[in-house]
């Protein structure tokens, strides 16, 4: 454990925030097991367990950078300038652990709407983010690194006919102090229903 672990679950939820700039160490193997096991507690209509995760660490991160950045350049994305590529490579080299996130498409399912399967995968992913935070690590959900380029998804073994690819979780030790997030008041987003209008 790298920072002081968050002891109060409610405080963990309300104090979690995305941390993009990370460094080693990554969660230890036993901690990573806890983090990934937390995903299994997500609400999941029909127990389809649609979430899929691919762990990328060590030398595999450099291989991911090569594959993803080349695929993005081949796709013709004008945002992948040499400066942007250098910046992304430096960022990825500093992150000790990535977890790719995908939803398994249940082709033979006739009962559970796909939107509910996608929500279950999102909930499983949120459990990973919360668990990492509770163990004192930082995490960031990125939809960069070629998330929407099919060649990247295929390179990870997630054929687009069978999986909806949803990005990468970067997990590690915060590289700098992380100030509290400025959260809105929940009342701006909540109404109470008391009957038909």
TrEMBL record:
Q: State which Enzyme Commission number(s) the record gives.
A: 1.-.-.-
Q: Which segments constitute the Nitroreductase domain?
A: 13-172
Query: Which Pfam families does this chain map to?
Result: Nitroreductase
* Native species: Achromobacter insuavis
Determine the domain of life of the protein's source.
Bacteria
- Protein's recorded name: Putative NAD(P)H nitroreductase
Which family does this protein fall into? Answer: Belongs to the nitroreductase family.
Q: Where does FMN bind?
A: 16-18, 45, 141-143
* PANTHER family recorded: NAD(P)H NITROREDUCTASE YDJA-RELATED
InterPro entries reported for this sequence: NAD(P)H_nitroreductase (IPR052530), Nitroreductase (IPR029479), Nitroreductase-like (IPR000415), YdjA-like (IPR026021)
Question: Which of the seven top EC classes does this enzyme belong to?
Answer: oxidoreductase
Single GO MF annotation: oxidoreductase activity
Needed cofactors: FMN
Record's keyword terms, sorted = Flavoprotein, FMN, NAD, NADP, Oxidoreductase
Q: How is the cofactor bound?
A: Binds 1 FMN per subunit.
């Amino acid at each position: 454990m790298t920072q002081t672990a968050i002891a109060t679950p409610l405080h963990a939820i309300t104090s979690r925030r995305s941390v993009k700039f990370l460094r080693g160490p990554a969660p230890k193997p036993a901690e990573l097991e806890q983090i990934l096991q937390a995903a299994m507690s997500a609400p999941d209509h029909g127990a389809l367990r649609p979430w899929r995760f691919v762990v990328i660490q060590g030398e595999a991160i450099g291989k991911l950078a090569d594959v993803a950045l080349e695929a993005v350049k081949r796709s013709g994305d004008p945002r992948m300038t040499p400066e942007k590529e250098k910046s992304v490579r430096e960022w990825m080299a500093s992150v000790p652990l990535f977890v790719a996130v995908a939803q398994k498409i249940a082709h033979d399912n006739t009962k559970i709407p796909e939107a509910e399967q996608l929500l279950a995968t999102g909930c499983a992913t949120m459990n990973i983010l919360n668990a990492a935070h509770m163990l004192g690590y930082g995490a960031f959900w990125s939809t960069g690194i070629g998330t929407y380029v099919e060649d990247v998804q295929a390179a990870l073994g997630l054929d687009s006919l069978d999986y909806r690819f949803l990005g990468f979780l970067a997990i590690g030790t915060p590289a700098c102090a992380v100030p509290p997030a400025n959260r809105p008041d929940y009342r701006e987003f909540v109404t109470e229903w008391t009957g038909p209008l």
